[in-house]
Specification:
4 helices, 25% strand, five-stranded mixed β-sheet, alpha+beta
């Protein structure tokens, strides 16, 4: 069975959000303030902007089997223009079948075509299987990432 990868278009926000929720399964977890409606609104804003691309992978039967997002974000003085792959999620039943590799290739090609000098991907420390996949795909483990969540009043 083959995989078809293409960019999401406006109006497909709910499908992208569904794909993101595959990241919540172990070893992942649901963000404490996860809200599908807010995620769909953010997806619409990303699709309307010009510095990002959202990709979908579909089976021959048009089943959504993977999603990925890539953003042009910073111009580093040391390294040049960075593209960040923020989300790469594959349906659990479709893992190890080439879906992630196809999405990663599409995101990296988009980054190259949009002037990025390098691609950055952050992955949770518990996702050891994903880390092995990234290393097999030619990535180098270049850093540890740290994050602060900014609390906002609601």
């Amino acid at each position: 069975m083959s995989i078809h990868v293409r960019q999401f278009q406006p109006g497909a926000e709910a499908a992208f959000v569904t794909g993101l929720e595959w990241l919540f399964e172990p070893p992942g977890s649901r963000p404490p303030d996860w809200d599908r409606g807010r995620a769909a609104e953010r997806t619409a804003r990303v699709l309307a902007g010009g510095n990002a691309a959202l990709f979908e992978a579909r089976s021959d039967h048009d089943q959504l089997v993977g999603v990925a997002s890539v953003y042009l974000d910073i111009l580093s003085v040391r390294f040049g223009r960075r593209a960040s792959i923020e989300d790469l999620a594959v349906h659990p039943e479709w893992r190890s079948r080439g879906v992630g590799a196809s999405l990663l290739a599409a995101a990296r090609a988009w980054a190259h075509d949009h002037g990025a000098d390098y691609v950055f991907l952050e992955s949770g420390v518990a996702r050891t299987a994903a880390h092995r996949f990234y290393l097999r795909a030619g990535a180098t483990q270049a850093a540890s990432a740290f994050r602060w969540t900014i609390e906002r009043g609601r």
